[in-house]
Amino acid sequence: MTALTQSVRSLWDSSIGKKTVVAVTGLVFIGFLVAHLIGNLLVFVGEEAFNHYAEWLHGLGHGAAVWVARLVLLGSLVLHVVATVSLTRQNRAARIAYAHEDTLRASKSSKIMIWSGLTVLAFIIFHILHFTVRTDAQLAKIAAESPYQMVIVGFQNWLVVIFYAISMTLLCSHLSHGFSSAFQTLGFSSSKTRSLLDKLGKAYSLLILVGFLSIPISIRIFGYGS
Amino acid sequence: MNLTLKVWRQAGPDAQGHIETYPANDIPASASFLEMLDIVNEGLIAKGEEPIHFDHDCREGICGMCSLNINGVPHSKEKAVTTCQVHMRHFKDGETIWIEPFRANAFPVLKDLVVDRSSFDRIIAAGGYIDVRTGSAPDANSVPIGKNIADEAFEAAACIGCGACVAACKNASAMLFVAAKAGHLNQLPQGKPEKDKRTLAMVRAMDDEGFGNCTNQYECEAACPKEISADNIAKLNRDYLAASAKEALV
């Protein structure tokens, strides 16, 4: 057991090991986002369908499934953030700045990963307080009656919609580099698949952006649900 | 050609460095970049000033000794060349050129544009070799090796260890160098038996030297004078994870 613990420790301490943690936890979120989006888009089917979905989700596995998912997501989030912050610190310590710096290929999204990531982290905290914990008593009361109405009322606030839009745009940027990057880190990328994974990542991140933005925009700008 | 040079000057490893401006006048367009620096240095020596120190050896693009970050990019923005193979005809008359040493904490500046790249030697010493004598080159086809494997190993072996990958990376990561050196030996019958041991040792030596972590931006691949593919990095990641799992469980 000591040898195993030591191996896990040395893997975590190594650059590739820590990056693997980032890649695996990133893939957990890539999968979660698709499921979350499909569920959310039911808002366009109607109040009954959305509320029925919410009820079904919370009753799955006698209510245990949603908590298992929450624990996996929380654990993944903590590991993803701790590893990336630690890697970023090491990266900054490893480099001395050039007086005149230029790049040949690096994408814009790859250059702002830590900032897009930290903004998304702030959004996740806000989003959970807003729609899961429901710190707003009025919204909590509405949610108890109808989760569908909670979404409609929740997106009436312009500040919420603007913060949501900024966060989704940065999430799209984060994913457009993170998607193919995860496969490269895990060693699944090759000369035959790299360009395909890159295109797939860009298509996926665009889908996530358009999908998630369609809800607050329809509600706040086009008056959907009112 | 008349040019303005912005050159990093640093008297020694512990001295404070700074950018110094020099005119480079009457430079022939046919001169190589290093010959241009030779001309500027002759002028400095004639004036009794300290010449600009820089690394160079073969000047044929094969030894990996020349370095220099030219206008923000290692070995200049010319594709697949070393600094010694960059020619002045690629610059415009009147242009300002920034010349800096390869930057990384693991490549400390010794003087001006000369950096200490012995951290690469220590990574090689950790596992970039084959333990047993394998004799001289075997007769052709006596050891069957698939064409694709031979090609991939040969492409990885083209690495001249210049350090451009580290200098180009915003994290000063040495992954492309280590991936090329480990990948070259790991695929061939002579190197395969020590694949796991080599991979673990070289990656750990790389981390110990204080290089940064790869963030998959592929600047290394774009700057590499030998066009080593970042696919080697994916392969190293895979090999390292497999070797770590075997070390932990077997």
Q: What are the key terms here?
A:
heterodimer, A: 226 residues, mainly alpha, 80% helix, globular, B: 250 residues, alpha+beta, Ubiquitin-like (UB roll), Fumarate Reductase Iron-sulfur Protein, Chain B, domain 2, 2 domains, 5-stranded mixed sheet, two-stranded antiparallel sheet, 8 helices, 36% helix, elongated
Global Rg of chain A: 20 Å
Distance between the termini of chain A: 60 Å
Rg of chain B (CA only): 20 Å
Query: What strand order characterises the main sheet of chain B?
Result: 2-1-5-3-4
Question: What's the helix count of chain A?
Answer: 10
Element-by-element helix/strand order of chain A = HHHHHHHHHH
Mean pLDDT of chain B: 96
Count of folded domains of chain B: 2
Q: Main sheet of chain A?
A: none
CATH-defined superfamily of the largest domain in chain B: Alpha-helical ferredoxin
Mean pLDDT of chain A: 96
Assembly type: heterodimer
Residue share in helix of chain B = 25-40%
Number of strands of chain B: 7
Question: Which percent band covers the strand fraction of chain B?
Answer: 5-15%
Low-confidence stretches of chain B: none
Structural class of the secondary structure composition of chain B?
alpha+beta
Give the distance, in angstroms, between the N- and C-terminal Cα atoms of chain B.
Answer: 65 Å
Strand content of chain A: under 5%
How many separate domains make up the residues of chain A? 1
Helix content of chain A: over 70%
Give the SSE layout.
The complex is a heterodimer of chains A (226) and B (250).
Chain A: H1 2-13, H2 15-41, H3 47-59, H4 64-94, H5 108-111, H6 113-133, H7 137-145, H8 147-154, H9 158-185, H10 194-220
Chain B: E1 3-9, E2 18-24, H1 33-46, E3 69-70, E4 73-74, E5 96-100, E6 109-111, E7 114-115, H2 118-127, H3 147-157, H4 164-168, H5 175-186, H6 195-208, H7 219-223, H8 231-249
Parallel strand pairs in B: 1-5
Antiparallel strand pairs in B: 1-2, 3-4, 3-5, 6-7
Helix pairs in contact in B: 2-5, 2-6, 3-5, 5-6, 5-8, 6-8
